[in-house]
Structures are given as structure tokens and as C-alpha cells.
Amino acid sequence: MGYTRREFGLMTVSGLALSGLGLPARALADTIVGGVRIGVQTYSFRELARTPGGDATAAIIAAMTNTGLTECELFAPQIEPASGLGRGATADERQKAREAVRRWRLETPLDHFRGIRKQFASAGLSIAAYNTSPDASYTDEEIDRGFEITKALGAGFITSSTTLAVAKRIVPFAAKHKMDVAMHNHSNTSDPNEFATPESFAAARKLSPHFKINLDIGHFTAANFDAVAYLREHHADITNLHIKDRKKNQGDNTPWGEGDTPIREVLQLVQKNGWPIPAFIEYEYKGTGPVEEVKKCYAYARQALA
Q1: What pLDDT does 19 receive?
Q2: I want to staple 214 with a disulfide (CB 3.0 to 4.6 A). Which of 7, 184, 280, 298 is the partner?
Q3: Does residue 160 form part of some domain?
Q4: pLDDT of residue 30
Q5: HSE on the CB side for 11, CA within 13 Å?
Q6: Is residue 205 assigned to a domain?
């Protein structure tokens, strides 16, 4: 297979993320479509079964291999212990479960996460980012541990669905670890503590030079903002994109091409300008199953960038 000059350049730059994984630079080739890095947010595979008594690592690796995608943003709950709690759980049971996962985060040896990294690498896959989202219940030790886990996984940065209030607590840890944290937006524009508006992103950027943007173009569209214009103006601050389709006015998630999100225009803008911004597929609508639907999304992206 031959590669364009832009694709070869992206492989060279992105290959830095694979150094230490034992992966050849060519392993990234399948994620580059028309000069754009296409990967997957592993939340897309949330419906897949865990290994009994374990996590979803094996299921994610199998799913990625099946789809042909080789780069991902790893969703933290998929490698953490499942709570096992049902809807009828009591407050006491929920508190005990919360304490259990806290202990797991703090006490699990970092070699455990290095082992996950090796499993991905052995399958020719890479973890570009770790999606861990501290809330108000997190201790400082848990926040700090998230950075250590990210490094052990071989990921280059953190993505986070957190709040402005908690982001202020993350500032010293981002500085300590010299690692970028990309704030992920949703569409709740009524809460000033949420990341949902251009102003909320700007507020985060003022807190730390390590704070960047994980732009979810589906949520951004549902909140009635222009993802194309925002990307054009702020691309230097955007670490990665979440690609999904939603309707405007807080509308539903839809199969790609049926909503109002300018997926094609966003991907083509990244392509035209050669920006090294990975676009991670995020499957959230109701479909036939995560693997088949991610394949459809990937085919849509390839067609848009053809």
C-alpha cells in the first residue's frame, strides 16, 4: 500500500505515541484515512461482555480488530471493576461500592495497566488517550493516580467529562505530570459548571496551559453551536474529536448522516488543513450492535474523506 506525503507525515508524528509499545510505525496506517486519523472511543463497545471476574480489555481488542480500527481512546470504567449494583441498591451499598473502586484505583499495581498496554500492543493496537472523569467525590490521591495510570497505559493525554469546579482541582496534577487534559463537552448549557459552551472551554483554558479541548461535535451541535466554525478557530487547542450525529435543539443521537451534525464537513476540514487531530468514532444511537454500527460509522468516515 502506498501513502500520501501527508499520511506518511502523520504516521511519523503519531508513531511517537507508539514508541515503547513495540509497534512498527506501519501499525498506525489503518487509522489514517485521506490524511486523517480515525479511531474509536471504546465507550462505543460498552454493551460487550467483560471477561468473567475481569474487565472488558479482551472484548475491546476483539472489537477493534474486527472493525479494522487500530487507535482508541480508552474509557476508564471498562477496565475498572464493575459495581454489580442494581437499580434497587441502597445508599449504603452504593457508598461501599464507591470506596471499593477508590481502593482499586489507588492500590492496583501500575504493572496491571502496563499489562493492558501490552495486550493492545500485541494485537497491533494503540491507546492514544485515557478517558477518566473525576467528579466531586474523587480524592486528590485518585486524581493523581489517574495520571499515573494514563502513563502506564502508554496514552499521551487524558480526556475528561468533568466540571469546571473539579477542573480547578486537577490543575496542580496536570502541572506535576506535565500532561494535557482535554475537557469533553456535553450539551447541558443551563449549568455553568458543565462543559457545554465555547465560554466554558475558554474558562478551562485559562486555568492551565495543560488544559485542552476534546470536542464532541454531536453534543456541540445539539447545544446549537457551530462545530465547523469552532474547529476552524480553535484547532490548535483541540487534542481530539468525538464523532457522533445528533439533532439540534438537544435532539437525539442518530445514525450518521441522519442528524444535524456536520460530520463530513468537520472531517474534510481536518483533512484540508492537515491538522494532526484524531477523530474518534463514538457509537451512541440505537443500532444492530456496537461492532457492526462502528463499522458503518467507519465506512461513512472513509467515504467522506475519499
Answers
A1: 41
A2: 184
A3: yes
A4: 58
A5: 20
A6: yes
